[in-house]
Amino acid sequence: MEKSTPVNGGEALLELFNIQEIDFVFCSPLSVWAPLWEALAKQKEIGKTETPRYINCRHEILAVGLASGYYKATGRPQIVLLPTGVGVLNGSMAIRGAYQERVPMIVLAPDSVGFGENPEFDPGAEWPSLLGDLGGPVRISESFVKWAKEVKNPRDLISDFCRACYFAEMVPRGPTLLSVPFDILMDTVPFTLPSKLKAHPLVAPADTLKEIARILVQSENPIIISEHACRTREEVNVLTKLAELLGTPVFEFFLPTYKNFSRNHPLHGKGPVEEILKDADCVLVAGSNAPWHPPLIDFQRNCNVIVMEEDPLRPRAPYWGYKTDYCVAGDLGSNLIELYRHAKNEINNAPQILKKIEQQSKRWKTYNDKKRKSWLKETKQTQAEETIHASWLFRTLSELLPNGTIIVDEIIAQGNLMMQHLFQNESFSHYRGMAGGLGTGIPTALGIKLAEPEKLVVCLIGDGSFSYDPIPASLGLSQQYNLPILIVICNNQGFVSQTWNIQKYFPQGSTLKTGNFLGDVIEPTPDYSKIALAFDGYGERVENPGKLKSAVERGVAAVKKGKLAVVDVILNP
Ligand SMILES: Cc1ncc(C[n+]2csc(CCOP(=O)(O)OP(=O)(O)O)c2C)c(N)n1
Ligand SMILES: [Mg+2]
Predict the structure, then answer these.
(1) Among candidate residues 339, 368, 397, the one where a domain is terminated
(2) Any residues with Cβ below 6 Å from ligand 1, and which?
(3) Pocket of ligand 1, candidates 144, 469, 490, 498: which has the most ligand atoms within 8 Å of its Cβ, to mutate?
(4) Residue 302: pLDDT over 80
(5) Domains: count for the chain
(6) Which of 70, 246, 311, 333 would bridge 447 by S-S if both were Cys, CB 3.0 to 4.6 A apart?
(7) Does residue 182 belong to any structural domain of this protein?
(8) Which residues of 327-356 are buried (b: 16+ CB within 10 A; e: fewer)?
(9) 375 in a domain, yes or no?
(10) pLDDT in tens, 310-356
(11) Which of 432, 438, 499 to mutate to test the pocket of ligand 1 (most atoms within 8 A of CB)?
(12) Do 364 and 390 share a domain, yes or no?
C-alpha cells in the first residue's frame, strides 16, 4: 500500500482505472464528468501516456456495445461512463444484453446529492429540473445489472469501485453499476492505493467432475450442446479434445454467442439438435441459456442431462424448465479442462470402451457429413437465379473474405443459413452481436476492432436490425477513431422473422389471404449504402448475384484503405 497526495473524486477514479488495468473508458458525455475529464487532460498535459484510453461516444448503446465487443475479443472488462439516469435508460437494452451474455463491465453513472444549494458542488441548472430521478441510476438499473450501488461517502469511493470490479469479473460474470455523485467527484478523496483484486475462478469439486466424466464415458449415445462455452482458443481446444475423446458431436444451439467448435470438424453437430435428442442417453449442456426448443422433450428414461454453467438453472432468467439431472456450477473453461482430464483417466482405466467410442464417432461423422453435403447442394441451385439468395451470399463471403476475418452478426431469419454456409473458411472467428435486443451488432463489432486493429472485422446485419443500431454514433466513432469495419446488410427488405407466428397460428387468416403482413414492413427500402458517405466511408448496393463478388471486394478494399464500408445486399427474402 502506498500513500498519495490528496486528490478529488475524478483524479481518484483515474488512479483506480489504472490500478485495475483498464484499457478503455467508453464515455457518453455529461458535464458533471468535468473532474474526470480535467484529470485526463492534466495527465496528458504533464506528458504521461494516456492510460486508460478515453473514447467519447455519441450514444449509450455504442458505449456499452464497445465494452461488450472488447471483452468478447480479449476477456478484459472495461469502464463505461453513462450520463446519470437518462444515460442508463438509454443504454439499458445493451446492458441487459451484457447481463444475459455474462459479459462483465463496470458502468459508472454520476448522480448529484445537492441541486445547487451549495455553490461549491452545483451540478448545473439542468439537474433539479431535467436530470434528477428519484432513486437515481441505481434504482433504474437494478433489474439488468448484477450489482448496483451508490457511493455515499468520499471515503467509500475506493472500496466501492474495487467491489464493482471484483463482482463484475467473478462468476457469474456480468455488468455492475456504481453511481458516483458529482459532490464526490469534486470532493477530496482520502486516497490510499489499493492493489488489484483478481477474481480467481470458482470451480467444481474434483469428485463431482469425476462422477460426471464417468457418466459421459459410459453412456452409449452422449451428445454435447453449447452456445457460449468457448470464448477463448484454449476453451475451444478443450471442448474439441473432449468431443474427440468421447466420440461425441457438439451441437451449437440456435444463434451461438461464440464459435465454440470448428464448424468444419466432422463432429460438429449438423441440423437441429431436437431431431436427435430423443435418442441420446446423456446430454452435456456446456454453457447454454436455452439448449433446445420446445423445452419439454420425451427423453429416454435413463438419459442424464448434465448442465455445466457459471450459474446453472439461470437464477437471473424467468425460466429453466429443461430436464436437468446434474448441475456443475462455476467457471466453464476451468471446469471443462478438469472434466477432460477425468474423462481421459476413465478411458485409460477401461480401454475396452474405445471400440464403442470409435463406432459412435464414425456414426456421427457420417450423419454430419450427409447433412452438410445436402446444404452445399442447395447453394449451387441458386447460382443461376436473378436474385441473391442468403445462402449464396454467405457462401460468397466464405470464399472471398480474407483468412482471419472476424465475423460479428446481428442476423435473425437467416441465422441458420449463415451457420450452414459462412464458416467453410476455418480461419474465421465469430461473435454474436446481440442478445435478444436489437441494436448492438455494430457497436460490438467496433469494440472487437479496437481489440484487433489488424484484422478485418465484418458486421453482418439484417436491414431491420440496422435501424435499431445507433448508426450515426457508430459510423461517427469509426471515422473519429480510425476503426474501419465492413458492414454487410443482409437486406431481405423487411422484418421477415415477424411473419413467423402469423404463418404458424393463422395459416388460413386474413393476413396470408391478403398478403397484408403488418409487422414485417420496411417500405420504401432506403438506400442504406449512402449513409456511409456522410462519414467519409464507402457505400454500395448490390442486387444481382453476378455483381456480388466485385461489390464485396470493393468493400474489403475500402476497409483496407482505412475507410468504413457499407455493402447493402438485396436478398431474396
Ligand atoms: C430492441 C428490439 N426491438 C424489437 C425486437 C423484435 N424483433 C426481433 S427480430 C426483428 C426484425 C429484425 O429485422 P431484420 O434484422 O431485418 O431481420 P429479419 O427478420 O428480416 O431476418 C424484430 C423487430 C427485438 N428483438 N429487439
Ligand atoms: Mg430483414
Answers:
(1) 368
(2) 93, 412-414, 436-439, 462-465, 468, 492, 494-498
(3) 498
(4) yes
(5) 3
(6) 70
(7) yes
(8) bbbbbbbbbbbbbbbbbeebbeeeeeeeee
(9) no
(10) 999 999 899 999 999 999 999 999 999 999 999 999 999 999 999 99
(11) 438
(12) no
**Whether the Cβ atoms of residue 522 and residue 467 lie closer than 8 Å to each other:** yes
Report pLDDT digits (tens) over 3-14.
556 699 999 999
Decide: helix, strand or coil at residue 540.
strand
Cβ neighbours of 225 (radius 10 Å)? 25
CATH number (domain holding residue 172): 3.40.50.970
- Asked if 391 and 495 sit in the same domain, the reply is yes
Whether residues 481 and 424 share a domain: the answer is yes
The rounded Å distance from CA 107 to ligand 1 centre is 26
| Residue 315: domain span | 206-368
Count CB atoms within 10 A of the CB of residue 26: 30
**DSSP letter (8 states) at residue 269:** -
Return the C-alpha cell found at 152: 455515499
Q: Once rounded to an integer, what is the mean pLDDT over residues 454-461?
A: 98
Secondary structure of residue 371 in the 3-state scheme: helix
Residue 426 shares a structural domain with residue 329 = no
In this structure, the answer to whether residues 64 and 121 fall within a common structural domain is yes
Query: How far does residue 466's CA lie from ligand 2's centre (Å)?
Result: 9
SS3 13: helix
- Domain shared by 102 and 145, yes or no: yes
Contact call for residues 28 and 82 (beta carbons, < 8 A): yes
Q: How far apart are CA 367 and CA 51, in angstroms?
A: 52
Q: Tell me the CA–centroid distance for residue 391 and ligand 2, in Å.
A: 15
* Tens digit of each residue's pLDDT (9 = 90 or more) over 369-421: 999 999 888 776 666 778 999 999 999 999 999 999 999 999 999 999 999 99
